[in-house]
């Protein structure tokens, strides 16, 4: 019985550490650049597209903001679909487990 209690304590400790790591990862922001600096994207640790800048030499100046918004919307749509598929795939694995309420797998 002592081993089970010890193991449950370690699981709780692991969950707390993973939650802290996930909180830290979300705060990470990085910028990617391509085309010799003509295109810049900014993502956070959840792969959310925070910003997009396209140089005006690549298309008409009045179309840039619309193009940037459309690309951001397409990225959000794809990300939402990926998250739904990930949830669907992991649900089959976790259905038989009696995980504590609120326990999240590190995905």
TrEMBL record:
- Which cellular compartments is it found in? Cytoplasm, Nucleoid
Query: Could you tell me the keywords of this UniProt record?
Result: Coiled coil, Cytoplasm, DNA-binding
Q: Which GO terms describe its cellular component?
A: bacterial nucleoid; cytosol
On whether Transferase is a keyword of this UniProt record, the answer is no
Listed GO MF terms: DNA binding
Q: Which domain of life is it from?
A: Bacteria
Per the record, the coiled-coil ranges are: 4-31
Q: How does it assemble?
A: Homodimer.
Role: Binds to DNA and alters its conformation. May be involved in regulation of gene expression, nucleoid organization and DNA protection.
Family recorded in the similarity comment: Belongs to the YbaB/EbfC family.
PANTHER family linked to this entry: NUCLEOID-ASSOCIATED PROTEIN YBAB
Tell me what this protein is called.
Nucleoid-associated protein B488_00580
């Amino acid at each position: 019985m002592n081993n089970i209690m010890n193991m449950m304590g370690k699981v709780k400790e692991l969950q707390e550490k993973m939650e802290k790591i996930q909180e830290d990862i979300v705060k990470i922001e990085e910028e990617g650049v391509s085309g010799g600096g003509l295109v810049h994207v900014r993502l956070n640790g959840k792969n959310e597209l925070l910003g997009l800048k396209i140089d005006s030499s690549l298309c008409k100046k009045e179309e840039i903001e619309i193009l940037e918004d459309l690309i951001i919307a397409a990225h959000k749509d794809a990300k939402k679909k990926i998250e739904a598929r990930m949830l669907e795939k992991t649900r089959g694995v976790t259905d038989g487990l009696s995980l504590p309420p609120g326990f999240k797998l590190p995905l």
